[in-house]
Structures are given as structure tokens and as C-alpha cells.
Design brief:
α3 (72-80) runs parallel beside α4 and α6 (155-171) packs across α9 (296-316). The protein has helices spanning 20-28, 55-58, 72-80, 95-108, 122-125, 155-171, 247-250, 271-288, 296-316; strands at 8-13, 32-38, 47-48, 61-64, 84-87, 112-114, 136-144, 175-183, 192-199, 204-213, 217-224, 227-232, 237-242, 260-265. It is 31% helix and 28% strand.
Length: 320
């Protein structure tokens, strides 16, 4: 989809993964007009700014790529100036601050989109048009143990939170109950966590995650009547097994023939391409007046589940 009826003046705050090449793509498509940068890369065609106040006069939307600038005070200032916002990190804000930001955004009539690259990977976008009513969801996300023990990876914010968002979007129901436990094998904080999420529509999800595994695994399976799906983010494959036969027909064929097995493989993930898709969707939600792919309200639901898991871990996990 290509719409050139409106160009946006944007402010780029921080460095992150936003590159000169990504900027040029949106300039060439005439989706971006005037582009300003605050503490960002010194890209060509990126006008340097000195402070947040200068954003008020020049831009329609702000993209924040540095966690150090994803602060409550900064976002409130930008949103009250009626600027749309794309943010990549919310770890410095509490759930209550995020809710207040959502209220400010609603009052100002602006969009706030939160980054989650998993929503833009091919294997996830491929299931958007399917009729899904999963009853059981299993998510496994394991990282290899780091060679440097001092390497800091947040099991909740870096690994678990994006998966929670995908699980909630699949379940499509309010959360009824959350339980979790974790252990610390190598670190003073949990490096292995198992969580169970129950939904009001009867769906149940289990999430197992670790940052000390022997090999990397990232897979989500969900089961529903007559079929199940496997999203393998590690090898970028979507596997669908469907029982297409009636009970009478199934009695006459072998077990192997009773399920239709379809597996689609996609090319490996290019993080710059994923970021481009996220920014493109941000542009279109502003121009078309539609909801972001991952709105702040949806993200708050995921954050609420993550906070409930943290509460469970604080009770069930004894720090060294």
C-alpha cells in the first residue's frame, strides 16, 4: 500500500536501530518531509535539534529509539503538544504512568504505537486473516546462556513481554488468572521462568522462558478444534496441521493421512526490514486515522500480565 497524500514532519530521538538507509526510504517515498534529530545520528537531511521544546514547532510525529529518552516526563510533554509517538522501550515507566499517557493521547487525539517486531515477522502476519479460536497456547523461548555472566538481559522486558503480547492477541480475551514461578541458576534474578495465563473464554496459555539454555528456541504453538499451528520464530516457519476428514472417512485411512500438514518457510529476519515495517504502519495509522498495530492500550494489557508475573516471582523466587 502506498499513500503519498500526506507527508509527515518527524523527529527522531536517540539512535537505536534507525539508520540513514531507513530514513532515505521514507524520504524517497515522500512519506517524510522535514526530519529533525535530537541526540540522534548525524544523518544527511536530519536537522539537529537542541532540546524537546524545538520539537513542538517543527514536527507532526516523534519516534523515540533510545530507552534513556523513553521517560514519562518526555512523553507527556510531546503528547500534550499533539504529536504522534512511536516508542521502542517502556521499561523506565510504570503501568500507571503508561495509563496516564494513554489518557493524554486520547485527549490530544494522537496515536501512540509501541514497538514489537514479532508482530511484523512474516510468520505472524501470515495468520492475521485466519479464523483463530485457540483453546491451548504453548510458548517456549530459550536463549543460550551468555559467555559473559555480566551480560544483562531482562527475562521479563527483553524476552517475555513481546511473547505475552502475541499470546494475548491470539487468545483475544480478557485475562482471568496469572500464576508464575522462577528460579535463579546462574544469576541473582530469575533466569528460568514458567507462567500460566488463564482467560475468560476458557483458553489457557503456558509460557516457558530461559536465558541459560543449551540452544536457542523460540516457538509458539496453539491448538484449537480440528487443527493446530506452530510459529517457529527461530527458523521462520509456520506449520499448520488440520484434520479435514469426517469421523467416517478417518476410519478408512491411516493416522498419517488423517492430518493435512502444511509448512511454510520464510527468509531469515532482517531487523532493519522489520523496523521499516513498524515505522510504515505508524505512518499509515496517522494518515488513515486507524489504530496502530500495537496500540498503547494493548501494550498496557501485556504489561499488566508481566507485572502480575513479577508479583508472583517476588513471592516464589528467593534471591541469593
Amino acid at each position: 500500500m502506498q499513500i503519498n497524500s500526506k507527508t509527515l514532519n518527524v523527529g527522531v530521538i536517540g539512535k537505536g536501530n534507525f539508520t540513514d538507509e531507513t530514513l532515505r526510504i521514507f524520504l524517497d517515498r515522500k512519506m517524510f518531509g522535514l526530519c529533525c534529530g535530537l541526540q540522534s545520528h548525524k544523518f544527511e537531511n536530519l536537522l539537529p535539534l537542541r532540546n524537546y521544546e524545538e520539537l513542538d514547532k517543527t514536527v507532526d510525529a516523534v519516534m523515540i529509539f533510545d530507552p534513556a529518552f523513553c521517560l514519562y516526563e518526555n512523553l507527556v510533554e510531546v503528547i500534550k503538544s499533539c504529536k504522534h509517538v512511536f516508542i521502542t522501550d517502556t521499561s523506565h515507566m510504570t503501568k500507571h504512568q503508561l495509563k496516564r499517557i494513554a489518557n493524554y493521547a486520547a485527549e490530544a487525539g494522537v496515536h501512540v504505537q509501541v514497538s514489537n517486531g514479532l508482530r511484523f515477522e512474516h510468520i505472524h502476519t501470515e495468520i492475521k486473516d485466519l479464523e483463530l479460536e485457540p483453546r491451548i497456547i504453548e510458548c517456549s523461548h530459550y536463549l543460550k546462556r551468555p559467555e559473559n555472566k555480566k551480560e544483562k538481559i531482562s527475562l521479563i522486558n527483553d524476552i517475555l513481554l513481546p511473547d505475552i503480547d502475541i499470546v494475548l492477541s491470539l487468545a483475544n480475551s480478557r485475562v482471568k488468572h496469572v500464576s508464575a514461578t522462577g528460579v535463579g541458576v546462574l544469576f541473582d534474578d530469575p533466569d528460568v521462568v514458567n507462567a500460566r495465563i488463564e482467560f475468560y473464554n476458557g483458553c489457557v496459555a503456558t509460557i516457558s522462558t530461559s536465558k541459560i539454555a543449551d540452544k536457542e528456541v523460540h516457538k509458539i504453538r496453539f491448538f484449537q478444534n480440528n487443527n493446530y499451528h506452530t510459529l517457529n520464530f527461530q527458523n521462520q516457519s509456520l506449520r499448520i496441521l488440520t484434520g479435514n476428514e469426517t469421523p467416517e472417512d478417518m476410519a478408512e485411512i491411516s493416522v498419517e493421512e488423517q492430518m493435512d500438514d502444511q509448512t511454510n518457510f520464510h527468509k531469515s529476519v532482517n531487523r532493519q526490514e522489520i523496523l521499516e515495517k513498524e515505522i510504515e504502519s505508524f505512518y499509515y495509522c496517522i494518515v488513515l486515522g486507524t489504530e496502530p498495530v500495537l496500540s498503547l492500550s494493548e501494550f498496557i494489557e501485556s504489561r499488566d500480565v508481566a507485572d502480575r508475573i513479577i508479583d508472583q516471582l517476588e513471592r516464589n523466587f528467593s534471591r541469593k
